Amino acid sequence: MRIFTGSAPAPRLNTDFPIRRKLLLSTMMLAMAALVGRAVYLQILDKDFLQDKGDMQHVGVVSVSAYRGQIKDRNGEPLAISTPVQSIWVNPRQLKDSEQDKLTPMARILGFPEKELRALLKKEKDANKRFVYLRRQINPDIAEKVKDLEITGVYFEREFKRYYPAGAVSGHLLGFTNIDDIGQEGIEHGYEHILRGQPGKKRVIKDGKGQIIKDVENIEEAVPGRDLILTIDERLQYLAYRELQNAVIQNKAHSASLVVLDAKNGDVLASVSQPAFNPNNRKELSSNRYRNRAIVDSFEPGSTVKPFVIAAALDGGYIHPNTMIETHGVYHLGRNVVKDVHNYGTMDLTHVLQKSSNIAVTQIAMTMPPEYFWGIYNKLGFGTSAGVGFPGEASGSLLDYQGWHEFDQAILSFGYGVSTSILQLARAYTALADDGIIHSVTLLKRDEDPDAQRVFKPETARKVREMLEHVISKEGTAYQARVEGYRVAGKTGTVKKATAGGYADDKYLSVFVGMAPASNPRFIIAIVVDEPTSGQYYGGLVAAPAFSRVMAGALRVYGVEPDGMENMHLLLSKR
């Protein structure tokens, strides 16, 4: 035995134990967190893993489709709506050999040739694909029949399909969306940022076949798109569509466009083009059919600009209401020659418009300084986009006066050397219809026009309007534009089409722009018919009759009080 003497050291406490315990707890917590994280990853991020392992339930995050905003006419009538549909897709890797016999009824329900379906699925499975659409945007009832088959690996997704109740009547204006509900043409494309909604997200529980069996929680609410209320009146849109179609057929024309404006505020009440297309059925249609000619095409307006030349000269004091102008069938301007169809002799301003004299209007134009003349055209919107927010909207062209030669000013006076869309031309006529005030044009409903501005004095606009009533007389160029019971003012244009190296001798644009009632205009209608080939090509014979029918219908629909009862009584007495 060994004996220790002296003072022995005191026993030591194990102070490392609390630290070790903390380390152990931390390690356990990290391990648990890793296990939880792995579970979340498998359940949410790697859903295919669990789906391949059997029929256990699992949690997933799915997208929630958002409604696209509706497009409505000014009276609330739907022009474009979205309806819920189903799309069916498959994960080829998950298809079971034991369920192969279910592919036969599925193919029959979907209208899919069975041999093609099986070949597609085998091909995609061999390529290790996990996602293949079978059918998109089908009737929910059809999707339910497929769902009842309970095929592993076949999934269902709610989407929305765009539908256009008016079909071809408003096709060029509205455009359409693609299969992913994204605007591709027309208003659908131009106002995509307003119409398109924001998809949401939700957490769900799915069974082993991928079918949602329970909603767990909303992660992010879907935000629907906003509705668009247009200025379009569906009643006038249909009327304009029908009459323009008839004009194209009767005159065997290449194409045509027509616009109806509210003369008091610039609202576009109708806008149609031919040939038409139905946005509900776009199979085998070329992009040329989609083009909204009324807004994106430009052309030389011809004699329809002559009223502006006379208004500009009157307003600037370069001519007077009683001015007389000599014409003799031919007018020389330097080395260039201006001609009329007939020798009209000496004419007053009313007859200048009534007979549409190129010689007289040229002489009037040459009295004005180029800068002033150009300034009026510029204020009328020529060479500037109408600004309605439509994709591809035409600006037209107007050469700056500093680059003009003497003859440039002459041809501008009878509508050559300047180009415009039919919408821009109709807008310019608001300056005559609303007593000298030109209005901005819009496709979206608004309370008032914030950009209205004066171009002519009120008395000038009214005087020119009175002159334009004589164009609709028997002695004028547009007798077929008359509307029983109403005074009508307007101007024809018959324009040779520009071709490579000059103008064609046998291809014309037939144009007419008019307003009614002339005493206090309510509507402006502008129409252009491209390349009529049935024998007639003058604006007064091709475009004016369609104007008359559309104007008569518009006045009737809106209950506008007649201002030409004397004319009506005269017409009735002749029957």
Automatic annotation (TrEMBL):
InterPro entries: Beta-lactam/transpept, Beta-lactam/transpept-like, FtsI_transpept, PBP_dimer, PBP_dimer_sf, PCN-bd_Tpept
Active-site residue list: 303
GO cellular component: plasma membrane
UniProt cross-references to Pfam families, sorted A to Z: PBP_dimer, Transpeptidase
Catalysed reactions listed for this entry: Preferential cleavage: (Ac)2-L-Lys-D-Ala-|-D-Ala. Also transpeptidation of peptidyl-alanyl moieties that are N-acyl substituents of D-alanine
Enzyme Commission number: 3.4.16.4
GO molecular function: penicillin binding; peptidoglycan glycosyltransferase activity; serine-type D-Ala-D-Ala carboxypeptidase activity
Alphabetized UniProt keyword annotations: Carboxypeptidase, Cell cycle, Cell division, Cell inner membrane, Cell membrane, Cell shape, Cell wall biogenesis/degradation, Hydrolase, Membrane, Peptidoglycan synthesis, Protease, Septation, Transmembrane, Transmembrane helix
Residue ranges of domain Penicillin-binding protein dimerisation in the record: 64-215
Gene3D superfamilies: 1.10.150.770, 3.30.450.330, DD-peptidase/beta-lactamase superfamily, Penicillin-binding protein 2a (Domain 2)
Compartment(s) of residence: Membrane
Coiled-coil blocks: none
Ranges of residues in domain Penicillin-binding protein transpeptidase: 257-551
Family: Belongs to the transpeptidase family. FtsI subfamily.
Function: Catalyzes cross-linking of the peptidoglycan cell wall at the division septum.
Protein name: Peptidoglycan D,D-transpeptidase FtsI
Organism of provenance: Methylomonas koyamae
Taxonomy of the source species: Bacteria, Pseudomonadati, Pseudomonadota, Gammaproteobacteria, Methylococcales
Gene: ftsI
